[in-house]
Amino acid sequence: MSTRQTPQTRARDIDRVNTCARLDQAYADGQLDASEHREFVARAQSAKTLRELADLVRDLQPPVESVEVTPPAARSGRGRKSAWVVAAAAVAVTVAVVVSNGSDSPESGSPAPAGEAAPADPPGPAESSAVAAVEPVRPLRPGGFQRVVDSYRAEFGDTIAYEVILYPERAAAGRALPEAPDRIVPYTFKGGWERTNVPASSRFPGFRDFDAALVDAAALDDLIARAPGLLGAPEGVVTHVIIRDDGTPTTNIYVDYRNDLGNGYLKAGFDGSVLREYR
User: Fold this and answer.
1) Buried/exposed 71-98: b ≥16 CB within 10 Å, e otherwise
2) Each residue's pLDDT expressed in tens, for the chain with a length of 279 residues
3) pTM attached to this predicted model
4) Which has the closest alpha carbon to 82: 20, 134, 156, 4?
């Protein structure tokens, strides 16, 4: 009996998961708005066939290669599995295009005074501050998540979030409006927090706010480092991390296998314990 897949082939759980992850990234980089993302995810979760899943991502742009310094280039092809992972651009939880719509300038820092009585030779404290202001953001590297949390607390006065997403060179977060808790406002972080130009969206049913400070930062750093190996792809690369509470507080760590086997992700608790592997 032939095992060749056709559009009418029944979808597996992993097929639905991969499609939802692809939709997450399309929402992240601005291809889908909040209402489209919510609708498509619901349809993906109830899809019966591969054709239904393929129809949901048919008009999305293909993923791009993971790059940290230069702008990401489009991938030359798709993997056998759903090629949902966007790297530096998505990878760029929901913001590459969203971030690009905001300011690309460094976090505001006062340049050194024009030199009233200050000597010209030794660099003063103000100059050092200016250098620190352009320090690259690396949320997926050790200490990166803690920096995101600390800056979030400094900006908003607490660490309560609807969603936090970590990328190689930036982060994103959703935060409920105080006067309308079911409306979520998106922010981006690239050295400083900025509200994006994307309108507030509705809270997903069952999703709750969580305290980002309750995520064990050291355990998350360790899990990010080990995720490719845990998924059987030691040469793979973590593209992004989505932290949220959809009824269960979880961190989802997405990995590009960098081969024709596609992608996968780990679902873990805030303490770093692995709850499930999706290969």
Assistant:
1) ebeebeeebebbbbbbbbbbbbbbbbeb
2) 445 677 788 988 778 878 888 888 788 777 888 778 878 887 888 888 999 899 999 999 876 543 333 333 434 444 433 333 333 333 333 433 333 333 333 333 444 444 444 444 444 434 434 444 557 899 999 999 999 999 999 999 999 999 999 999 999 999 999 999 999 999 999 999 999 988 888 999 899 999 999 999 999 999 999 999 999 999 999 999 999 999 999 999 999 988 777 888 999 999 999 999 988
3) 0.62
4) 20
Nearest Cα to Cα of residue 112 among 99, 92, 126: 126
Residues facing 41 on adjacent strands: none
SS3 readout for 16-48: HHHHHHHHHHHHHCCCCCHHHHHHHHHHHHCCC
What number of CA atoms fall less than 13 Å from residue 202's CA on the CB side?
Answer: 8
Token pair, residue 119, equals 């000597």
Q: Are the CB atoms for 184 and 200 separated by under 8 Å? A: yes
- Measure Cα distances from 110 to 119, 151, 195, 271 in Å: 18, 18, 21, 39
CA-to-CA distance for 151 and 157, rounded, in angstroms? 10
Both tokens of 59, joined, read 């008009």
Residue 229 amino acid letter: G
The amino acid occupying position 117 is A
To the nearest 10°, the Cα dihedral for 93, 42, 275, 267? -20
